[in-house]
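Predict structure. Chain length: 336.
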Amino acid sequence: MLRPATKVLTPPIEIANLQKTMPQLAFDKIVIVTRKTGLEELIERFGSEAQAKFYIERLGDSFESYASSHRAFHNSLAVLNRSLPDIRCQWIDRSFLANFLFGPKDLVVVLGQDGLVVNTAKYLADQPLVAFNPDPVRIDGILLPFSVDRSKDILTKVATGHYEIDQLTMAQASLNNGQSIYALNDLFIGYATHASARYRIAQGEESEQQSSSGIIVSTGAGSTGWSRSILTGAAAIIEAVENAQPFQKARENYRIDYTTQALAYYVREPFISRASQATMVAGIIRKDMPLIVTSQMPSGGVIFSDGIEKDFLAFDSGTTATICVADRHLALVVQA
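Prediction complete.
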């Protein structure tokens, strides 16, 4: 005769003790964002590593720089993979960001260059982002506060809610048709081909008709990139034309703090004519002082962000864009 199975009950005090020892996770899952290495992109283009090497070396370039960068990234990738805490993880390539839906309780991890942080930020709401530098020898890592050899310790702490963040200011362009686009670094407003763009620009009581190569709107995070190159180029041109001493202030005081609740705008190559002016060529955008731009381009007008030209808003005649400090920010996890 078979005996009924005996159900063993754990005493309540043991269950309570077990719950105390288990860390409480602050997130539902971790989403790790990466991008293809330069070598992987070459292999996709030429079909094999050997063909890629032949092409690069035939042109006199060094293939080893691609290979060593590839090895460094995948070594870091392996370290990160071993360091992931016991929580559901999902890996995505940068090319899928535009169609990926981040959950409200996702922890976002980026392994790549600073630009990958920028690419990812525009698709987040308030999810914290942890950024690791996979190759400190080659990558400056301005937006990558952590080395990958600390990934186990960092991710364990962050996953249980022990972390600090910097709130990085973002830019937002909102159209009168209800569409919006966000940027962590910068917005471009103009023709898709970067040809002469026509529009009306206004801020506060000032307004004018303009014809230019487009408008760049920069955040603090972007002040080290496109906007710095604009200031550097403008200073160098005036120095050459006027045979003047170097404009050190323009060259050196380009940086805006990441958390500053303000944006800077610059008009590229403004053209003066009977129908266009060039007095509003640079300025500051604050929450109470947005920049209003109305397109006068019958077709081909665009607004894109952070250098991703394929992800844009159409900005053709009659469309008005309100450029302001965004209603969201990037929650970048930083050193405690």
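Summary: The longest strand covers residues 320-334.
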